[in-house]
Amino acid sequence: MRDHSATVLDVANLKTVFNTRDGEVHAVNGVSFYLKPGELLGIVGESGSGKSVTMMSLLKLLPMPPAEIREGQIEFDGRDLRNVSDDDLRRIRGGEIGFVFQDPMTSLNPVFTVGFQLVEPLRLHMGLSKAEARKRAAELLELVGIPDAASRLKDYPHQFSGGMRQRVMIAIALACDPKVLIADEPTTALDVTIQAQILELVKELRQKLGMAIIWITHDLGVIAEIADRVAVMYAGQIVEHAEVKELFANPQHPYTRALLETLPRMGEARAARLPSIDGQPPNLDHAPTHCEFAPRCKHAFTRCRKENPKRFEVNPAHDVACFLAQSGGSTDA
Question: Do residues 100 and 182 lie in contact, with contact meaning Cβ atoms separated by under 8 Å?
Answer without folding.
Answer: yes
